[in-house]
Model the fold of this input.
Amino acid sequence: MSDTPSKLELLHFARRVVVQQATAALAQIDGWIAQEERREAERRRGEEMRPAAPEWLIQYGLNKSNIDAVHAGDCWAARKSGRCRPASRQQVLEALARHVKACEFCRPDTVLGVLE
Done:
């Protein structure tokens, strides 16, 4: 009897190796899928927990006591300034009544129906 394996034994060995490698590869891919599903669930939870954007914004001056302008909550110019705080509709109306400048891009005075 020979110590060299038969062709059939080699084929069975090759099959076991392929099954083992495929099983390891699938386990790795399943891990990646699970990790991505956790990230996606975390992202969705973060979006759900994020507070709603304010409807109105007041932009303060550099000394934080002067009001420079009023904006709608989704105004890009307000986000760019970085000096805005959420405000109620009433606060914005009062500021406009005191002749605080309305943003020229989002026009909160027009949205609120305040005519000069």
User: Anything to note?
Assistant: The longest strand covers residues 67-72. The beta strands are 56-60, 67-72, 84-87, 101-102. The chain has four helices and four strands. The first helix runs from residue 7 to 49.
